[in-house]
Amino acid sequence: MATPRSTTTTACFFFLLCLYSSFYPSTSAPLFPKSALPTKSGYLPVNPATGSAIFYAFYEAQAPTSPLSKTPLLIWLQGGPGCSSMIGNLFELGPWRVVPSHNKNAHNLSLDPNPGPWNRLFGLLFLDNPIGTGFSIAATPQEIPRDQHSVAKHLFAAITGFTSLDPLFKDRPIYITGESYAGKYVPAIGYYILNKNPKLPVSQRVNLAGVAIGDGLTDPVTQVATHADSVYYSGLINERQKRELEEAQREAVEFVKIGNWSEATNARNKVLRMVENMTGLATLYDFTKKKPYQTSFATRFLNIPEVKRALGVNESMVFEECGDVVGEALHSDVMKSVKYMVELLVKKSKVLLYQGLYDLRDGVVSTEAWVKTMKWEGIEKFMTADRVIWEVNGEVAGYLQKWGSLTNVVVSGAGHLLPADQPLNSQAMIEDWVLEKGQFGRKQAGSSSKFRATL
Protein backbone atom coordinates (compact mmCIF):
# COMPACT_ATOMS: atom_id res chain seq x y z
CA MET A 1 0.00 0.00 0.00
CA ALA A 2 1.39 3.39 -1.02
CA THR A 3 2.08 5.90 1.64
CA PRO A 4 -0.01 9.12 1.12
CA ARG A 5 2.02 12.24 0.28
CA SER A 6 2.09 14.88 2.93
CA THR A 7 0.24 18.16 2.35
CA THR A 8 3.54 20.00 2.32
CA THR A 9 5.02 17.68 -0.33
CA THR A 10 1.92 18.03 -2.52
CA ALA A 11 1.96 21.81 -2.25
CA CYS A 12 5.63 21.94 -3.20
CA PHE A 13 4.99 19.69 -6.19
CA PHE A 14 2.23 21.91 -7.56
CA PHE A 15 4.28 25.06 -6.91
CA LEU A 16 7.20 23.64 -8.91
CA LEU A 17 4.83 22.49 -11.65
CA CYS A 18 3.34 25.98 -11.96
CA LEU A 19 6.80 27.53 -11.92
CA TYR A 20 7.97 25.16 -14.66
CA SER A 21 4.86 25.85 -16.74
CA SER A 22 5.34 29.60 -16.53
CA PHE A 23 8.77 29.26 -18.11
CA TYR A 24 8.09 26.27 -20.36
CA PRO A 25 4.46 26.36 -21.50
CA SER A 26 3.11 22.88 -22.19
CA THR A 27 0.76 24.23 -24.84
CA SER A 28 1.58 27.25 -26.95
CA ALA A 29 -0.56 29.46 -29.13
CA PRO A 30 -0.32 28.64 -32.84
CA LEU A 31 2.40 30.55 -34.65
CA PHE A 32 0.00 31.38 -37.44
CA PRO A 33 -3.50 31.78 -35.95
CA LYS A 34 -6.42 31.60 -38.35
CA SER A 35 -7.14 35.29 -37.86
CA ALA A 36 -3.72 36.14 -39.33
CA LEU A 37 -3.86 33.83 -42.34
CA PRO A 38 -3.97 35.42 -45.79
CA THR A 39 -7.35 35.40 -47.50
CA LYS A 40 -5.65 33.39 -50.24
CA SER A 41 -2.10 32.19 -50.81
CA GLY A 42 -0.34 29.80 -53.13
CA TYR A 43 1.14 29.76 -56.61
CA LEU A 44 0.42 31.51 -59.89
CA PRO A 45 1.99 29.70 -62.89
CA VAL A 46 4.21 31.68 -65.25
CA ASN A 47 5.33 28.64 -67.25
CA PRO A 48 2.94 25.68 -66.82
CA ALA A 49 5.17 23.51 -69.03
CA THR A 50 8.04 23.62 -66.53
CA GLY A 51 6.25 24.40 -63.28
CA SER A 52 7.84 27.80 -62.71
CA ALA A 53 5.45 29.90 -60.63
CA ILE A 54 5.19 33.06 -58.54
CA PHE A 55 4.17 32.69 -54.91
CA TYR A 56 1.44 35.03 -53.69
CA ALA A 57 -0.26 36.03 -50.44
CA PHE A 58 -3.48 38.03 -50.67
CA TYR A 59 -5.28 39.92 -47.90
CA GLU A 60 -8.74 41.27 -48.56
CA ALA A 61 -9.66 44.78 -47.44
CA GLN A 62 -10.48 45.00 -43.74
CA ALA A 63 -13.01 47.83 -44.01
CA PRO A 64 -13.73 48.55 -47.70
CA THR A 65 -15.72 51.67 -48.50
CA SER A 66 -17.11 50.28 -51.75
CA PRO A 67 -18.40 46.90 -52.99
CA LEU A 68 -15.57 44.37 -53.26
CA SER A 69 -16.00 44.22 -57.03
CA LYS A 70 -14.97 47.91 -57.13
CA THR A 71 -12.54 47.99 -54.20
CA PRO A 72 -9.00 48.93 -55.32
CA LEU A 73 -6.39 46.19 -55.34
CA LEU A 74 -2.78 47.02 -54.42
CA ILE A 75 0.00 44.77 -55.69
CA TRP A 76 3.29 44.91 -53.73
CA LEU A 77 6.69 44.05 -55.23
CA GLN A 78 9.87 43.94 -53.15
CA GLY A 79 13.25 45.03 -54.44
CA GLY A 80 16.67 43.44 -54.36
CA PRO A 81 16.87 42.21 -57.00
CA GLY A 82 15.83 38.91 -55.46
CA CYS A 83 14.27 40.03 -52.16
CA SER A 84 10.98 38.49 -51.07
CA SER A 85 7.76 40.47 -50.82
CA MET A 86 6.98 38.45 -47.70
CA ILE A 87 9.43 40.78 -45.93
CA GLY A 88 7.25 43.68 -47.06
CA ASN A 89 4.27 41.69 -45.82
CA LEU A 90 5.51 40.66 -42.37
CA PHE A 91 7.85 43.57 -41.61
CA GLU A 92 6.40 46.61 -43.38
CA LEU A 93 2.85 47.00 -44.67
CA GLY A 94 0.93 43.75 -44.27
CA PRO A 95 -1.79 43.37 -41.61
CA TRP A 96 0.53 41.40 -39.25
CA ARG A 97 4.16 41.79 -38.22
CA VAL A 98 6.57 39.20 -36.84
CA VAL A 99 7.93 40.22 -33.44
CA PRO A 100 10.15 38.53 -30.84
CA SER A 101 7.96 37.00 -28.15
CA HIS A 102 9.86 35.16 -25.44
CA ASN A 103 8.35 32.09 -23.78
CA LYS A 104 5.17 32.06 -25.87
CA ASN A 105 6.48 29.22 -28.02
CA ALA A 106 9.64 27.32 -28.84
CA HIS A 107 10.53 29.79 -31.60
CA ASN A 108 10.13 32.92 -29.44
CA LEU A 109 8.23 34.61 -32.28
CA SER A 110 4.66 35.77 -32.71
CA LEU A 111 2.46 37.91 -34.93
CA ASP A 112 1.22 41.33 -33.80
CA PRO A 113 -1.31 43.49 -35.66
CA ASN A 114 0.30 46.19 -37.81
CA PRO A 115 -1.01 49.63 -36.75
CA GLY A 116 -0.93 50.90 -40.37
CA PRO A 117 -1.64 48.06 -42.81
CA TRP A 118 -2.20 48.91 -46.46
CA ASN A 119 -5.19 46.57 -46.65
CA ARG A 120 -7.39 48.66 -44.38
CA LEU A 121 -9.45 49.95 -47.33
CA PHE A 122 -7.94 47.99 -50.22
CA GLY A 123 -7.13 44.43 -51.20
CA LEU A 124 -3.40 43.76 -50.90
CA LEU A 125 -1.52 41.21 -53.00
CA PHE A 126 2.13 40.31 -52.31
CA LEU A 127 4.07 38.67 -55.15
CA ASP A 128 7.48 37.02 -54.74
CA ASN A 129 9.05 38.31 -57.94
CA PRO A 130 11.00 37.32 -60.04
CA ILE A 131 10.74 33.51 -59.98
CA GLY A 132 13.46 32.12 -57.75
CA THR A 133 12.72 34.82 -55.14
CA GLY A 134 11.39 33.88 -51.70
CA PHE A 135 8.89 31.05 -52.06
CA SER A 136 8.55 31.42 -55.83
CA ILE A 137 9.69 28.52 -58.00
CA ALA A 138 12.18 28.67 -60.87
CA ALA A 139 12.24 25.25 -62.51
CA THR A 140 15.71 26.01 -63.85
CA PRO A 141 18.12 28.90 -63.25
CA GLN A 142 17.89 29.69 -66.96
CA GLU A 143 14.22 30.65 -66.56
CA ILE A 144 15.00 33.44 -64.08
CA PRO A 145 14.57 36.78 -65.90
CA ARG A 146 17.66 38.67 -67.05
CA ASP A 147 15.84 41.87 -68.04
CA GLN A 148 12.76 43.90 -67.19
CA HIS A 149 10.75 42.73 -70.22
CA SER A 150 11.03 39.14 -68.97
CA VAL A 151 10.17 40.26 -65.43
CA ALA A 152 7.06 42.01 -66.74
CA LYS A 153 6.01 39.05 -68.87
CA HIS A 154 6.02 36.78 -65.82
CA LEU A 155 4.24 39.36 -63.68
CA PHE A 156 1.53 39.77 -66.31
CA ALA A 157 0.94 36.01 -66.28
CA ALA A 158 0.74 36.04 -62.48
CA ILE A 159 -1.58 39.06 -62.26
CA THR A 160 -4.00 37.74 -64.89
CA GLY A 161 -3.84 34.34 -63.21
CA PHE A 162 -4.77 35.94 -59.91
CA THR A 163 -7.66 38.02 -61.26
CA SER A 164 -9.11 34.87 -62.83
CA LEU A 165 -9.34 33.17 -59.43
CA ASP A 166 -12.49 35.08 -58.46
CA PRO A 167 -15.03 36.99 -60.59
CA LEU A 168 -14.90 39.78 -58.00
CA PHE A 169 -11.24 40.45 -58.88
CA LYS A 170 -11.72 41.05 -62.58
CA ASP A 171 -12.82 44.70 -62.70
CA ARG A 172 -11.14 46.03 -59.58
CA PRO A 173 -8.82 49.00 -60.21
CA ILE A 174 -5.23 47.81 -59.82
CA TYR A 175 -2.40 49.86 -58.35
CA ILE A 176 1.08 48.37 -58.64
CA THR A 177 3.40 49.39 -55.81
CA GLY A 178 6.85 48.52 -54.56
CA GLU A 179 10.16 49.82 -53.27
CA SER A 180 13.88 49.90 -54.00
CA TYR A 181 14.71 47.68 -57.02
CA ALA A 182 10.97 47.49 -57.63
CA GLY A 183 11.58 51.03 -58.87
CA LYS A 184 12.27 49.05 -62.05
CA TYR A 185 9.75 46.20 -61.65
CA VAL A 186 6.80 48.54 -61.08
CA PRO A 187 7.34 50.65 -64.22
CA ALA A 188 8.18 47.50 -66.21
CA ILE A 189 4.89 45.73 -65.51
CA GLY A 190 2.91 48.98 -65.79
CA TYR A 191 4.50 49.69 -69.19
CA TYR A 192 3.87 46.10 -70.29
CA ILE A 193 0.19 46.33 -69.34
CA LEU A 194 -0.27 49.61 -71.22
CA ASN A 195 1.20 48.07 -74.37
CA LYS A 196 -0.51 44.69 -73.99
CA ASN A 197 -4.06 45.82 -73.15
CA PRO A 198 -4.95 47.28 -76.60
CA LYS A 199 -4.12 43.91 -78.19
CA LEU A 200 -6.45 41.98 -75.89
CA PRO A 201 -10.24 41.61 -75.68
CA VAL A 202 -11.69 43.87 -72.99
CA SER A 203 -12.43 40.85 -70.78
CA GLN A 204 -8.71 39.93 -70.68
CA ARG A 205 -7.24 43.35 -69.94
CA VAL A 206 -5.65 44.38 -66.67
CA ASN A 207 -7.45 47.32 -65.09
CA LEU A 208 -4.34 49.39 -64.32
CA ALA A 209 -5.15 52.61 -62.45
CA GLY A 210 -1.72 53.75 -61.27
CA VAL A 211 1.74 52.89 -59.98
CA ALA A 212 3.59 53.87 -56.79
CA ILE A 213 7.37 53.66 -56.31
CA GLY A 214 8.99 53.97 -52.90
CA ASP A 215 12.71 54.86 -52.60
CA GLY A 216 13.18 53.40 -56.06
CA LEU A 217 16.15 52.68 -58.31
CA THR A 218 14.60 53.74 -61.61
CA ASP A 219 17.19 55.70 -63.62
CA PRO A 220 20.46 54.37 -62.15
CA VAL A 221 22.88 56.29 -64.37
CA THR A 222 21.45 59.55 -63.01
CA GLN A 223 21.01 58.31 -59.46
CA VAL A 224 24.52 56.89 -59.03
CA ALA A 225 25.89 60.40 -59.60
CA THR A 226 24.07 61.79 -56.53
CA HIS A 227 25.66 59.86 -53.66
CA ALA A 228 28.56 62.26 -53.13
CA ASP A 229 26.21 65.23 -52.83
CA SER A 230 23.81 63.35 -50.53
CA VAL A 231 26.44 62.39 -47.96
CA TYR A 232 28.46 65.62 -48.27
CA TYR A 233 25.50 67.91 -47.68
CA SER A 234 24.36 65.66 -44.83
CA GLY A 235 27.65 66.53 -43.14
CA LEU A 236 28.99 62.97 -43.25
CA ILE A 237 32.11 63.48 -45.41
CA ASN A 238 34.48 66.33 -46.26
CA GLU A 239 35.22 67.92 -49.63
CA ARG A 240 38.20 65.69 -50.41
CA GLN A 241 36.11 62.57 -49.83
CA LYS A 242 33.36 64.08 -51.95
CA ARG A 243 35.80 64.40 -54.87
CA GLU A 244 36.87 60.77 -54.44
CA LEU A 245 33.25 59.65 -54.58
CA GLU A 246 32.57 61.82 -57.62
CA GLU A 247 35.43 60.13 -59.46
CA ALA A 248 34.07 56.69 -58.62
CA GLN A 249 30.62 57.81 -59.75
CA ARG A 250 32.03 58.99 -63.08
CA GLU A 251 33.51 55.53 -63.63
CA ALA A 252 30.07 53.96 -63.26
CA VAL A 253 28.57 56.47 -65.69
CA GLU A 254 31.34 55.83 -68.24
CA PHE A 255 30.67 52.09 -68.18
CA VAL A 256 27.00 52.81 -68.88
CA LYS A 257 27.93 55.02 -71.83
CA ILE A 258 29.89 52.22 -73.49
CA GLY A 259 27.26 49.61 -72.66
CA ASN A 260 29.41 47.54 -70.30
CA TRP A 261 26.51 46.79 -68.00
CA SER A 262 28.17 44.26 -65.74
CA GLU A 263 31.11 46.55 -64.98
CA ALA A 264 28.71 49.46 -64.51
CA THR A 265 26.97 47.48 -61.75
CA ASN A 266 30.33 46.63 -60.18
CA ALA A 267 31.28 50.32 -60.28
CA ARG A 268 28.03 51.30 -58.57
CA ASN A 269 28.65 48.71 -55.86
CA LYS A 270 32.11 50.22 -55.38
CA VAL A 271 30.56 53.67 -54.86
CA LEU A 272 28.19 52.32 -52.22
CA ARG A 273 31.02 50.50 -50.41
CA MET A 274 33.03 53.71 -50.39
CA VAL A 275 30.11 55.59 -48.84
CA GLU A 276 29.74 52.89 -46.19
CA ASN A 277 33.46 52.95 -45.36
CA MET A 278 33.65 56.75 -45.28
CA THR A 279 30.59 57.26 -43.09
CA GLY A 280 30.69 54.20 -40.82
CA LEU A 281 26.90 54.17 -40.84
CA ALA A 282 25.06 51.05 -39.64
CA THR A 283 23.02 51.20 -42.83
CA LEU A 284 22.74 53.56 -45.80
CA TYR A 285 19.03 52.75 -45.86
CA ASP A 286 18.56 55.08 -42.87
CA PHE A 287 21.43 57.25 -41.68
CA THR A 288 19.81 57.74 -38.26
CA LYS A 289 19.73 54.05 -37.31
CA LYS A 290 22.28 52.52 -34.95
CA LYS A 291 21.72 49.05 -36.45
CA PRO A 292 20.24 47.75 -39.71
CA TYR A 293 16.55 46.96 -40.14
CA GLN A 294 15.71 43.88 -38.08
CA THR A 295 14.13 41.74 -40.80
CA SER A 296 15.70 38.52 -39.51
CA PHE A 297 12.66 37.73 -37.32
CA ALA A 298 10.46 37.51 -40.41
CA THR A 299 13.03 35.31 -42.15
CA ARG A 300 13.15 32.91 -39.18
CA PHE A 301 9.36 32.84 -39.02
CA LEU A 302 9.03 31.96 -42.70
CA ASN A 303 11.38 28.99 -42.33
CA ILE A 304 9.22 27.29 -39.69
CA PRO A 305 7.42 24.21 -41.12
CA GLU A 306 4.11 25.15 -39.46
CA VAL A 307 4.20 28.55 -41.19
CA LYS A 308 5.05 27.03 -44.56
CA ARG A 309 2.14 24.60 -44.25
CA ALA A 310 -0.23 27.45 -43.40
CA LEU A 311 0.87 29.37 -46.51
CA GLY A 312 0.67 26.37 -48.82
CA VAL A 313 4.42 26.08 -49.31
CA ASN A 314 6.46 22.87 -49.51
CA GLU A 315 8.19 22.39 -46.16
CA SER A 316 11.46 21.46 -47.87
CA MET A 317 11.83 24.96 -49.33
CA VAL A 318 14.43 27.14 -47.63
CA PHE A 319 13.25 30.73 -47.39
CA GLU A 320 15.85 33.41 -48.13
CA GLU A 321 15.10 37.08 -47.59
CA CYS A 322 17.21 37.96 -50.64
CA GLY A 323 18.46 35.30 -53.04
CA ASP A 324 21.89 35.50 -54.67
CA VAL A 325 20.79 33.45 -57.69
CA VAL A 326 18.25 36.06 -58.75
CA GLY A 327 20.66 38.88 -57.95
CA GLU A 328 23.29 37.31 -60.19
CA ALA A 329 20.77 36.76 -63.00
CA LEU A 330 19.88 40.47 -63.00
CA HIS A 331 23.43 41.74 -62.37
CA SER A 332 23.74 43.25 -65.85
CA ASP A 333 20.26 44.77 -65.59
CA VAL A 334 20.97 46.89 -62.51
CA MET A 335 22.28 50.00 -64.28
CA LYS A 336 19.73 50.01 -67.10
CA SER A 337 17.15 52.79 -66.96
CA VAL A 338 13.37 52.40 -67.06
CA LYS A 339 12.70 56.14 -66.96
CA TYR A 340 11.08 55.98 -70.39
CA MET A 341 8.52 53.56 -68.96
CA VAL A 342 7.59 56.03 -66.22
CA GLU A 343 7.23 58.73 -68.89
CA LEU A 344 4.52 56.64 -70.58
CA LEU A 345 2.84 55.75 -67.30
CA VAL A 346 2.56 59.36 -66.18
CA LYS A 347 0.79 60.13 -69.48
CA LYS A 348 -1.59 57.15 -69.36
CA SER A 349 -2.24 56.66 -65.63
CA LYS A 350 -1.13 58.27 -62.37
CA VAL A 351 2.23 57.95 -60.65
CA LEU A 352 3.23 58.32 -57.00
CA LEU A 353 6.89 58.58 -56.01
CA TYR A 354 7.71 58.58 -52.30
CA GLN A 355 10.95 58.56 -50.31
CA GLY A 356 11.99 58.34 -46.70
CA LEU A 357 13.86 61.48 -45.64
CA TYR A 358 16.70 59.45 -44.09
CA ASP A 359 17.43 57.15 -47.05
CA LEU A 360 20.94 57.65 -48.48
CA ARG A 361 20.69 54.98 -51.20
CA ASP A 362 17.64 55.80 -53.31
CA GLY A 363 16.21 58.72 -51.40
CA VAL A 364 15.09 62.30 -52.01
CA VAL A 365 18.14 63.70 -53.83
CA SER A 366 18.48 60.56 -55.93
CA THR A 367 14.83 60.65 -57.02
CA GLU A 368 14.65 64.35 -57.83
CA ALA A 369 17.77 64.07 -59.99
CA TRP A 370 16.09 61.75 -62.50
CA VAL A 371 12.55 63.11 -62.21
CA LYS A 372 13.58 66.56 -63.46
CA THR A 373 15.00 64.98 -66.64
CA MET A 374 11.72 63.30 -67.58
CA LYS A 375 10.27 63.86 -71.05
CA TRP A 376 6.71 64.74 -70.13
CA GLU A 377 4.69 67.79 -71.04
CA GLY A 378 3.92 68.49 -67.40
CA ILE A 379 7.44 68.26 -66.01
CA GLU A 380 8.15 72.01 -65.93
CA LYS A 381 4.90 72.71 -64.09
CA PHE A 382 5.63 69.85 -61.71
CA MET A 383 9.12 71.13 -60.94
CA THR A 384 7.82 74.63 -60.21
CA ALA A 385 4.85 73.43 -58.14
CA ASP A 386 5.02 74.15 -54.42
CA ARG A 387 6.33 71.47 -52.12
CA VAL A 388 3.84 71.85 -49.29
CA ILE A 389 3.85 70.69 -45.69
CA TRP A 390 1.82 67.51 -45.29
CA GLU A 391 0.30 66.80 -41.88
CA VAL A 392 -1.37 63.69 -40.49
CA ASN A 393 -3.35 64.01 -37.27
CA GLY A 394 -1.98 67.50 -36.62
CA GLU A 395 1.69 66.56 -36.96
CA VAL A 396 4.10 67.12 -39.84
CA ALA A 397 4.27 63.84 -41.76
CA GLY A 398 6.34 65.08 -44.67
CA TYR A 399 6.23 67.18 -47.82
CA LEU A 400 4.07 66.85 -50.91
CA GLN A 401 4.61 68.06 -54.46
CA LYS A 402 2.09 67.45 -57.22
CA TRP A 403 1.15 68.42 -60.73
CA GLY A 404 -1.39 66.59 -62.84
CA SER A 405 -0.81 62.83 -62.71
CA LEU A 406 2.56 62.97 -60.91
CA THR A 407 2.85 63.16 -57.13
CA ASN A 408 6.00 63.08 -55.01
CA VAL A 409 5.94 62.67 -51.23
CA VAL A 410 8.92 62.96 -48.87
CA VAL A 411 8.08 61.20 -45.60
CA SER A 412 9.64 62.47 -42.38
CA GLY A 413 11.07 60.09 -39.80
CA ALA A 414 11.55 57.31 -42.34
CA GLY A 415 14.27 55.52 -44.23
CA HIS A 416 14.31 53.07 -47.12
CA LEU A 417 11.75 50.63 -45.66
CA LEU A 418 9.36 53.48 -45.19
CA PRO A 419 6.14 51.64 -44.16
CA ALA A 420 8.08 49.94 -41.34
CA ASP A 421 9.26 53.30 -40.00
CA GLN A 422 6.02 55.25 -40.42
CA PRO A 423 3.11 52.78 -40.65
CA LEU A 424 0.27 55.24 -39.98
CA ASN A 425 1.63 57.99 -42.22
CA SER A 426 2.42 55.59 -45.06
CA GLN A 427 -1.10 54.23 -44.78
CA ALA A 428 -2.57 57.74 -44.93
CA MET A 429 -0.38 58.49 -47.95
CA ILE A 430 -1.38 55.45 -50.02
CA GLU A 431 -5.06 55.73 -49.14
CA ASP A 432 -5.35 59.43 -49.96
CA TRP A 433 -3.39 59.00 -53.20
CA VAL A 434 -5.51 56.10 -54.42
CA LEU A 435 -8.80 57.74 -53.40
CA GLU A 436 -7.62 61.22 -54.50
CA LYS A 437 -8.55 62.75 -51.18
CA GLY A 438 -7.48 66.15 -49.86
CA GLN A 439 -4.29 67.52 -51.36
CA PHE A 440 -3.75 64.28 -53.28
CA GLY A 441 -6.94 64.95 -55.22
CA ARG A 442 -5.99 68.34 -56.66
CA LYS A 443 -4.26 68.91 -59.97
CA GLN A 444 -1.57 70.95 -58.23
CA ALA A 445 -0.47 70.67 -54.62
CA GLY A 446 -1.32 74.33 -54.19
CA SER A 447 0.25 77.36 -52.63
CA SER A 448 -1.11 76.81 -49.14
CA SER A 449 1.62 76.04 -46.62
CA LYS A 450 0.01 73.02 -45.01
CA PHE A 451 -2.14 70.03 -45.80
CA ARG A 452 -3.83 68.17 -42.95
CA ALA A 453 -5.00 64.60 -43.16
CA THR A 454 -6.77 62.60 -40.48
CA LEU A 455 -7.01 58.86 -40.15
Task: Please write out the topology.
Elements lengths: L6 H17 L16 E8 L4 E8 L13 E5 L7 H9 L2 E5 L8 E5 L9 E5 L20 H16 L10 E6 L2 H15 L11 E7 L5 H4 L3 H6 L6 H19 L3 H19 L16 H7 L2 H7 L12 H6 L9 H10 L1 E7 L7 H8 L7 H6 L2 E6 L2 E9 L2 E6 L6 H4 L1 H13 L14 E4 L2
Parallel strand pairs: 3-6, 3-7, 7-8, 8-9, 9-12, 10-13
Antiparallel strand pairs: 1-2, 2-6, 4-5, 10-11, 11-12
Helix pairs in contact: 3-4, 4-12, 7-8
Instruction: Compute the number of strand runs.
Output: 13
Structural class: alpha/beta
Q: What are the secondary-structure elements, in order, as H or E?
A: HEEEHEEEHEHEHHHHHHHHEHHEEEHHE
Largest sheet: 11 strands, mixed
Low-pLDDT runs: 1-27, 447-455
| CATH fold name of the largest domain | Rossmann fold
CATH architecture title of the largest domain: 3-Layer(aba) Sandwich
Estimated share of beta-strand residues? 15-25%
Structural description of this entry:
The protein is an alpha/beta fold. It folds into 2 domains: 34-219 and 294-453, Rossmann fold, CATH 3.40.50; 222-279, no CATH class. The chain has helices at residues 7-23, 85-93, 148-163, 182-196, 220-223, 227-232, 239-257, 261-279, 296-302, 305-311, 324-329, 339-348, 364-371, 379-384, 418-421, 423-435; strands spanning 40-47, 52-59, 73-77, 96-100, 109-113, 123-127, 174-179, 208-214, 350-356, 387-392, 395-403, 406-411, 450-453. Strands 1-2-6-3-7-8-9-12-11-10-13 form an 11-stranded mixed sheet, with helices on both faces. Strands 4-5 form a two-stranded antiparallel ribbon. Helix 4 crosses helix 12 (339-348) and helix 7 runs antiparallel to helix 8. The longest helix has 19 residues, at 239-257. The termini are far apart. Residues 1-28 form the signal peptide. Its main location: secreted. Keywords: Carboxypeptidase, Hydrolase, Protease, Secreted, Signal.
